[in-house]
Design goal:
The protein is α/β, with parallel strands linked by helices and 154 residues long. The chain is 43% helix and 19% strand. It has helices at 2-15, 17-21, 30-33, 47-62, 76-80, 100-121, and strands at residues 35-38, 66-75, 129-131, 135-137, 145-153. Strands 1, 2, 3, 4 and 5 form a five-stranded mixed sheet that branches. Helix 4 packs across helix 6 (100-121). The longest helix is centred in the C-terminal third of the chain and has 22 residues, at 100-121. The radius of gyration is 18 Å and the shape is elongated.
């Protein structure tokens, strides 16, 4: 019985570590912990997201086997209106024309902002925080600019 319980517990940690961390993170759900919101066109971590990253850092310090991966994202519709562009045209869809490289750079900067917060302020070892390939999409599912976190066991 004990072995079965232990196997289920370890499997739960590996398959959904944010759910396990939810209890430590207080007011944040596992869904909330996976997503960091940014102001459109910005890579600065919004004030309301700082406590979330502090909770993630605390949980990571208490679970040294976990590694966090950060997927920076940018959206042409959400961020395009806020990014200064040398072009003032719009695409045929009415969306602002935004340089894809500028959006990739914004997505990278968002991931780097999260990484810096976890490493410098959260005191997480840099080798436990990895940045994934940045993602540029037309629009987010809810119209908000964000980046995603995922956890894996070492």
């Amino acid at each position: 019985v004990f072995a079965d319980t232990l196997i289920k517990f370890v499997t739960g940690i590996v398959s959904s570590p944010f759910t396990v961390m939810e209890g430590l993170a207080g007011a944040f759900s596992s869904k909330d912990l996976k997503r960091v919101i940014f102001a459109p066109g910005s890579s600065a971590i919004a004030a309301g997201q700082v406590d979330k990253l502090k909770a993630v850092a605390k949980a990571l310090r208490e679970r040294p086997a976990l590694i966090v991966s950060i997927e920076g994202r940018a959206y042409s519709r959400v961020d395009g209106k806020a990014i200064p562009s040398e072009k003032s045209e719009t695409e045929s869809s009415g969306d602002p024309a935004v340089d894809e490289k500028m959006l990739e750079e914004l997505a990278r900067q968002r991931a780097e902002s999260i990484r810096a917060a976890l490493v410098m302020e959260g005191k997480i070892e840099s080798e436990r925080v990895e940045m994934l390939q940045e993602i540029v999409e037309k629009n987010s599912s809810d119209g908000k600019a964000d980046a995603f976190l995922s956890l894996t066991a070492d």
